[in-house]
Specification:
CATH class: Alpha Beta
Bound molecules: guanosine-5'-triphosphate, magnesium ion
Structural class: alpha/beta
Number of strands: 7
Helix content: 25-40%
Strand order of the largest sheet: 1-3-4-2-5-6-7
CATH topology: Rossmann fold
Number of domains: 1
Oligomer: single chain
Number of helices: 5
CATH superfamily: P-loop containing nucleotide triphosphate hydrolases
Radius of gyration: 16 Å
Distance between the termini: 14 Å
Amino acid sequence: MQIKSAKFYISSQKEKDCPKTIMPEYAFIGRSNVGKSSLINMITNQKKLAKTSSTPGKTQLINHFLINNSWYIVDLPGYGYAKTSKSNKKHFQKSITEYFKKRRQLVSAFILIDIRHSPLKIDLEFILWLATNKIPFSIIFTKTDKISKIEIDNKLLNYKKELEKDWEILPDFFISSSKKYTGKEDILNYIDKINQSII
Ligand code: GTP
Ligand code: MG
């Protein structure tokens, strides 16, 4: 799929403020600093569409980007940002869970996971939560430029082993690097396939 246009559409604090249009959307979620906003810029060929930062906690709202005037990419705040205050954390958590539970236009979520880490409780719990709430998702491993190919394979194997403990069928997964521009085609083709079946 070619991205012909990608425009910032709206930032919302809560699910109820999100666009009322009925276009399908794909949400990018994961731990703070995992590379959600960078990945969105990479796949849309734009440098500053989504705001990125080396300091965790940059994205604080639900951000809709309109793609090819027919579907949305949604950039969400990260979870697990230790430095934010407790009440702030609760507020984030609530706005994210509400978004996932209520947003009818959400077709599928991408959970981003930093390839360098061993499976983390917070990610495994979030995966379980999505599945329990019947929200379709796939996994994107990020920052693959930071380790060797052999290490990538090892980390993937580890992750699959961990998921196999809970799941008979594993979710689809992608590997990406926003720095090296890898993973873009696979992710866009995946979205395109779903869009073709529903738009
Ligand atoms: P929050 O909005 O704070 O939750 O973070 P985020 O998940 O949107 O992460 P963001 O895209 O802002 O990136 C965080 C940091 O990781 C930035 O310093 C990016 O430059 C860096 N980064 C993101 N993706 C990659 C990647 O693929 N490779 C490398 N080497 N660095 C990356
Ligand atoms: Mg962000």
